[in-house]
Amino acid sequence: MQPPTTALLGRAAATFVLGVVVGVLGTVMHRAVRPWGLVLCVVLVLVALLTARAWHGWATYVGAVGGLFLATTLLAGEGPGGDVLVPGTDLWGWGWILGAAVAVVAVALVPRRWVQDDPARTGAVAPPPAGPLP
Asked: What pTM does this model have?
């Protein structure tokens, strides 16, 4: 295993921010238009995590999951005025939390060949080298 580079850490930080944005949007909007708001928010989590994993593997995936977890956990708690965005007493809140968890597990179980480009396996031709013609 190679040590992490600054580029990899930067990508992981970027996907952490992506996870925070997805977590905030999902937590706020999962009740917007029932049931499609919940479905759209869970699909958003699935697509964002799949994109993060395809971008640079497990490091970016873990960054996105961390951001999603942080945002969802903070917003699911009781606010300063006693407001709760994700009440534990109704099915919409449970649907959001469990749907996001299922999306996290589903993306983790996706085979590597679905998210990794391998020109040798796909039969793609490598581009010619740059430089002057002979």
From this structure: 0.83
